[in-house]
Amino acid sequence: MSRFVDELRAELAAACRAVGRPVQIMEVCGTHTVSIFRNGLRPLLPENLRLVSGPGCPVCVTAQRHIDAALELAARPGVLIATYGDMVRVPGRRGSLERQRAAGAQVRVVNSARSALEMARDNPRQQVVFLGVGFETTAPATAATVLAAERLELDNFSALMCHKLVVPAMAALLDAGDVPLDGFLAPGHVSVIIGAGAYRPIAERYRRPVVVAGFEPDSILRGLVALVRQIASGRAAVENAYSAVVRDEGNRVALDLLERVCVVADTPWRALGVIPRSGLELGPAYRRFDALERFDVHLGEDEDHPACRCGEVITGRVLPADCAAFGRACTPLTPIGPCMVSSEGTCAAWYKYGRGLAERGT
Fold first, then answer.
1. pTM > 0.85: yes or no
2. What is the dihedral of CA 113, 255, 164, 264, to 10 degrees?
């Protein structure tokens, strides 16, 4: 660790002493969770500071009913599923997309929505369904791809819309009231799009400080110092510790694109149920590109694996070590739930970087 990081650790320790009680911070973003582990920060934190994971892993928060809808579509003749990599191994009632691919289904991993569009253009006799998963970070790319499909008159491209909005989920956690949270370390990637100002309702309505931070150790520690200092002084404001990248107003071009193509809608989250106005659907002018409508697929009820506590992990209710399946029945090779599948999943991060901590329940 650099001298600068050591100085930040000392500042954080002093701020925690000033609070004089246990402090619980939620790192909303899965990338923060992984970075904290990968850089060895967790064992270096003050004893009275506890970090818990939030619903910021896109794959992890995707409701089981959407996973099952993707599996139903993959089983249909003439349908090609294009998806980001982590989604192929998430288990549903019919197995996983990976298993369906092994059985002959057409499932391809892409690194962008644009790649899915190119598949549709190059395979006019197949229906290409892109799994639109992620938060405001990836949603603009889906919206832009839908516009391109319209412009190119591609009637064989559609999207299964699973996009989520971060701030409503944070509010839902606080409304539930069963997880004590003193503040939020807000995600850097999402904040580039929505802007730091988007978190003001959390600070003003719920009196919880929010600090936007990047993903390097010094940025994370600066964010934690700012949070704990606010808690010590009884303040609740939004601060931006990632000002080199994040602006208060966000990315207006991306936000305008979402407003043009999408509408805000009630949507289901894993463990959180249906949260009002927390997701994005295609607007009326672009509804013909909605895979659920095109293929007349009806979302059922969520049926999570009874041994999986992923939903509790991503809402800060338990640590991975509290799950009896963690590291035993549920491993990266034999995942029961998405938190062990995703590269941003909390369970996967604990398994890869922090199994000693998990065994101690730290």
1. yes
2. -120
